[in-house]
Amino acid sequence: MDASTLSPLEQVRHRRHERWLEDLQQRLAETLVDVPCRGWLFGSRARGDWDGFSDTDLLVEAECAELAERAADLLRYALVGDDVLALDRRRWQAMAESPSPHWRAVHAQARCVYPQP
């Protein structure tokens, strides 16, 4: 996104979101340092249509369900994210072809935030 094409209010909103995202990525890195996984942001924060009442929806993807659950538990315990889902890699990839429009949208709109892209 080219911030120079945004209105002044949109520029403030964009900068605020970028600072929030940097903080989230730092907290993910500190919390998940020993767990081989990926962290995905989904929902309004990933889509960019968040507001002051938006929560932080995270999905943890790991090679196996046990690692994903371990990572999700660490995030929940550290209060990183409001909703934290855990999926093994196969289930996460299968969401792209899910019969549910909701889960297809989650997969399509999710933004990988850990490790930092």
In the CATH classification, which architecture applies? Answer: 2-Layer Sandwich
Helix proportion of residues, in percent? 40-55%
- CATH topology: the name is Beta Polymerase, domain 2
End-to-end C-alpha gap = 16 Å
Name of the CATH superfamily: Beta Polymerase, domain 2
Strand order of the largest sheet: 3-2-1-4
The major pleated sheet works out as: 4 strands, mixed
Question: Could you tell me the number of beta strands?
Answer: 4
Structural class: alpha+beta
What best-fitting shape do the alpha-carbon axes yield? globular
Residue windows where pLDDT falls under 50 for at least 5 positions: none
CATH class equals: Alpha Beta
Give the topology string: H per helix, E per strand: HEHEHEHHE
Q: Please indicate the count of domains.
A: 1
What can you tell me about this protein's structure?
The protein is an alpha+beta fold and 117 residues long. The chain has a single domain (3-114), classed as Beta Polymerase, domain 2. Helix content is 48%, strand content 19%. It is built from 5 helices and 4 strands. It has helices spanning 8-31, 44-47, 65-77, 89-94, 101-109; strands at residues 37-42, 57-62, 83-88, 111-114. Strand 2 (57-62), helix 3 (65-77) and strand 3 (83-88) form a beta-alpha-beta unit. The longest helix is centred in the N-terminal third of the chain and has 24 residues, at 8-31. It is globular and about 45 Å long. It starts with 7 loop residues before the first helix and ends with a strand. The mean pLDDT is 93.
